[in-house]
Specification:
Elements: H1 4-17, E1 25-31, E2 34-41, H2 44-55, E3 62-65, E4 68-69, H3 77-90, E5 99-104, E6 107-114, H4 117-125, E7 135-138, E8 141-142, H5 152-165, E9 174-179, E10 182-189, H6 192-203, E11 210-213, E12 216-217
Parallel strand pairs: 2-3, 2-4, 6-7, 6-8, 10-11, 10-12
Antiparallel strand pairs: 1-2, 5-6, 9-10
Length: about 220
């Protein structure tokens, strides 16, 4: 089992390995496997890369991202709203007519309704590299209707096959249950990143509007 000091060193080295973070000022604290990131970055993209990088490290149980985005330059909320709407309009994966955008002091709030889980996540991802955005709060609802042709068992099988195709998900340790429009994920994974990837994959299934992620991060066996 990794010590907190070993986890901290691994996170530090992996952050330094990311080109986008070479000039970032990021502090790392680790206690009982929980990583706290602090410091200042230039944009939201750097903040998210730092958080996702820490999540990939074996031994990390959770990540508290307290990194501050310090915007360089002047960006009005009106300018950001215009840029956001433009990017959403040109993203063919996103039904921009169903999404409402609100910007307050650089903080973006997304709401509305979409049919698929990937459309919700894609709307957020398409904005992450826009300069001037400090944070994104995504409350878009998913109103997918389960096809009568797809039984819960079929949906479970479809999600399992998606896990098996993924290079980042160990499908044999995950159990999928479908109740109504909710997919329930149970079992164990080796990292927070794998847990997040499984949830994203499950959201892609037709008829799934909610994912209850009960996966546990267990990594001790790797070091026995």
């Amino acid at each position: 089992m990794k010590t907190d000091l070993e986890i901290k060193q691994d996170v530090l080295e992996e952050l330094e390995w990311q080109p986008i973070l070479r000039d970032a000022q990021i502090g790392i604290e680790v206690k009982f496997g929980i990583v706290r990131l602090s410091g200042i970055v230039r944009n939201l993209a750097e903040k998210l890369v730092a958080e996702n990088t820490a999540k990939k490290i074996i031994g990390v149980k959770a990540v508290a991202d307290d990194i501050e985005v310090k915007i360089q330059g002047n960006f009005t909320d009106t300018d950001l709203t215009t840029k956001i709407n433009f990017d959403l309009e040109w993203n063919t994966s996103v039904p921009e007519e169903n999404i409402d955008v609100k910007v307050e002091d650089g903080h973006v709030f997304l709401s509305g309704n979409v049919k698929w889980g990937f459309q919700k996540s894609e709307a957020e991802k398409s904005l992450q590299y826009i300069d001037g955005i400090k944070s994104i709060t995504n409350t878009i609802s998913i109103n997918s209707i389960n096809s009568e042709k797809e039984s819960p068992i079929n949906i479970e099988q479809n999600i399992n096959r998606a896990f098996e195709r993924s290079a980042s998900i160990d499908a044999k340790n995950i159990t999928v249950l479908v109740e109504g429009n909710t997919a329930i994920l149970q079992g164990k994974v080796n990292s927070i990143k794998e847990k997040d990837d499984a949830q994203i994959a499950a959201y892609l299934a037709e008829g799934i509007t909610n994912v209850k992620n009960e996966l546990k991060v267990e990594y001790d066996a790797i070091y026995l």
